[in-house]
Amino acid sequence: MNTIFAVLLVFVGCCSNVVFLELLVRKFPGCGNIVTFAQFAFIALEGFIFETNFGRKKPAIPMSNYVIMVTMFFTVSVINNYALNFNIAMPLHMIFRSGSLIANMILGIIILKKRYSMSKYLSIAMVSLGIFICTIMSARQVNTGAEGSEDQDVYAFLHWLLGIAMLTFALLMSARMGIFQETLYKQYGKHSKEALFYNHCLPLPGFLLLSSDIYNHGVLFSQSTPVEVPVIGQAVPVMWLYLLINVITQYVCIRGVFILTTECASLTVTLVVTLRKFISLIFSILYFKNPFTAWHWVGTAVVFLGTLIYTEVWTSVRMALRGKEELKEKKKLR
């Protein structure tokens, strides 16, 4: 029952979150810091009240380990948001982050000395190919879409290239964090709510470094068009309303993912998150009319097909069907 509930939280929360994030980013492309700060502050406040009982409950995992995990988590969150400032379209952003399987496998081989089957290597090759196709096509759009002199075209392309480098670094850092978290859970047990709180509470002082940017975007949000909220009957700047909904849906999404990590195997979690990304991607393209060519569709299909092969969903389906057939045969014999 917990698994079904967690899956619903992931799909409803994460898909809604992507919609309101894109609404925010389309209006103010550099608003990633204020969005991240609001998300972290909300989740930290909720955890401080309900998980730590106003700081009276001691953590099960040593604080020194949380400091390491939080440093990586904060870095990944900030860099992923900053990448949107470098001509990175939201669909490409989502597709690129689907490459987490590649990063996990590479670091698993290097750090944990893991070995994988041929189907795993095939799936990773497919995911890499799909991301490469989408990246190349987006690079061509950056070159052809920029209007101006040749120097401006080169600047736009280098700007975009820096965004790709940031996404790549965040991808590898996220994979390293996942491996570190896996080793902690093996040693101390799984404490999803506790990890959720400390991952969002401890980085809050780091936002002091970004305070001027957060303040400036807060002023811009306050100057946005006011809309009346039916429940309270008050007019609120629309960007603040979008931010509030984004924060709530982000909490629902992350809560669902953290529950899944304690209830399901990592492959199941990967499959659910990847399917969620696919639905979010399709919605983003159709609703916001993001530029997406036939080659982008090919790349996307290859990425998600590779992911499904990696999670061995085909094997699971065949085994389930075979089990049903055997059950029918047994009933016939009776």
TrEMBL record:
Membrane as UniProt keyword: yes
Chain coiled-coil ranges: none
UniProt subcellular location: Endomembrane system
Top-level taxonomic group: Eukaryota
A molecular function (GO) term: UDP-xylose transmembrane transporter activity
Membrane topology of this protein: Multi-pass membrane protein
UniProt keyword annotations, A-Z: Membrane, Sugar transport, Transmembrane, Transmembrane helix, Transport
Similarity remark: Belongs to the nucleotide-sugar transporter family. SLC35B subfamily.
Name the UniProt record assigns to this protein: Solute carrier family 35 member B4
Gene source species: Oncorhynchus mykiss
